[in-house]
Amino acid sequence: MLSIAFPFSLFIEGRKKHMYIIRRAEKNDIPSIMKLLIQVNMVHHEGRPDLFKGPTTKYTEAELSDLLENEATPIFVCADDKQVLGHGFCIFQHSGGRLMEEHDTLYIDDICVDENHRGKGIGKALFEAIVSFAKSKGCYNVTLNVWSCNPGAMEFYERMGMKPYRTGMETILK
Q1: Is 59 exposed, middle or buried (0-12, 13-18, 19+ CB in 10 A)?
Q2: How many Å apart are CA 158 and CA 152, to the nearest integer?
């Protein structure tokens, strides 16, 4: 597996300086990633308990291990010298055919920063590293979906320069 480490980034919190690195996730990161996946799940469960079970994760440890081995599903982490503080799950997609122009997309399936480390620029650093990675792979765009019950995430992605390109709608029948 290709391991890309993005340059250390310096974040300032008061007078303390913290060094972080964005890199591809490794198997020894799985326990930390699983904890973050629970945090993501609980945000969605609290916003839409009719749809999301909680607390749980969208992947088992075995499924996560398989994703780490698959170059079509790159996973990035932000870590300091002690722990993983955030992750970004991605999926390469290809579109084209009779209706659409041929193009490659890097879809962000999930970005999470540990709830105890938010507001330090970690999410922005992860997002920027993912965009840089997508550019290096020749992708036309980076896309993601965000649940309307997560306005903080919507605001974050808008600050990162993302714009809506389609909207999902529903009518609940039960």
Answers
A1: middle
A2: 10
Q: Which CATH number fits domain 9-159: 1.20.1290.10, 3.40.630.30, 3.60.20.10, 3.40.50.720?
A: 3.40.630.30
Q: Could you tell me if 17 and 10 are in contact, meaning their C-beta atoms sit under 8 angstroms apart?
A: yes
130: how many CB neighbours lie within 10 A of its CB? Answer: 23
Question: At how many degrees (to 10) do helices 30-47 and 61-69 cross?
Answer: 110
- The pLDDT-based confidence of 137 (bands split at 50, 70, 90) is very high
Helices (H) and strands (E) in the chain, counts: 4, 6
Nearest to residue 40, comparing CAs of 60, 23, 25, 55? Answer: 55
**Beta-carbon-side half-sphere exposure of residue 21 (alpha carbons within 13 Å):** 13
- Indicate the helix (H) or strand (E) that contains 162: none
pLDDT digits (tens, 9 = 90+) for 77-87: 999 888 999 99
Three-class DSSP category at 14: coil
Q: What is the pTM of this model?
A: 0.90
* Structure confidence at residue 9 (pLDDT): 45
Closest CA to 78 of 64, 88, 92: 88
Distance between CA 78 and CA 57 in Å, rounded?
Answer: 19
